[in-house]
C-alpha cells in the first residue's frame, strides 16, 4: 500500500522491493525527506512499500529511559513492518538534526 503515486521507473526490468522506514522525527520536522526518498527509489526501479500503519518506533521513549512506556509503540511498529519481506531503507534526518 503506497502513500505516494509511483512515477514511471527508469529501468522497469530491475525492480527491487524495498520497505521505507521514515522516523517520526523526520516525518514531523522534514516530511519532504521521505517523499524525496520514495520518488528517487521509484525512479531507480524500486517497488517501495511504506505502510500507512507505520508510526513511531518508540526510539524517543527508549532514548530517554522510558522503555516500558515505549513498548506499545515498538509493538505497533513491529506489527506494521512485519509483513514486509523487502530490504528496509531508513529515511534519516538531515545530518545537522542532532544540533537542534
Q: How would you sum up this structure, described in words?
A:
The protein has 4 helices and 3 strands. The relative contact order is 0.26. The chain has 100 residues and is α/β, with parallel strands linked by helices. The chain has helices at 24-29, 32-43, 59-63, 67-81, and strands spanning 16-22, 46-49, 87-91. It has a 3-stranded parallel sheet with strand order 2-1-3. It has one domain. The protein starts with 15 loop residues before the first strand and ends in a 9-residue tail after the last strand.
Percentage of β-strand residues: 15-25%
Radius of gyration: 15 Å
Task: Give the strand line-up of the largest sheet.
Answer: 2-1-3
| Count of discrete structural domains | 1
Number of strands: 3
Number of helices in the DSSP assignment: 4
Query: For the residues shown, what is the average pLDDT?
Result: 75
What can be said about the biggest beta sheet? 3 strands, parallel
Q: Summarize the amount of helix as a percent range.
A: 25-40%
Order of helices and strands: EHHEHHE
Shape: globular
Q: Low-confidence spans: pLDDT under 50, at least 5 residues? A: 93-100
Distance between the termini: 33 Å
- Secondary-structure content class: alpha/beta
Summarize the entry for a quick read.
With 100 residues, this protein is an alpha/beta fold.
Amino acid at each position: 500500500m503506497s502513500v505516494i503515486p509511483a512515477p514511471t521507473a527508469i529501468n522497469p526490468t530491475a525492480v527491487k522491493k524495498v520497505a521505507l522506514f521514515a522516523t517520526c522525527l523526520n516525518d514531523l520536522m522534514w516530511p519532504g525527506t521521505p517523499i524525496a526518498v520514495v520518488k528517487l527509489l521509484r525512479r531507480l526501479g524500486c517497488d517501495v512499500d511504506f505502510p500507512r500503519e507505520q508510526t513511531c518506533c518508540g526510539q524517543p521513549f527508549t532514548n530517554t529511559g522510558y522503555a516500558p512506556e515505549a513498548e506499545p509503540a515498538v509493538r505497533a511498529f513491529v506489527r506494521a513492518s512485519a509483513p514486509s519481506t523487502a530490504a528496509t531503507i531508513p529515511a534519516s534526518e538531515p545530518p545537522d538534526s542532532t544540533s537542534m
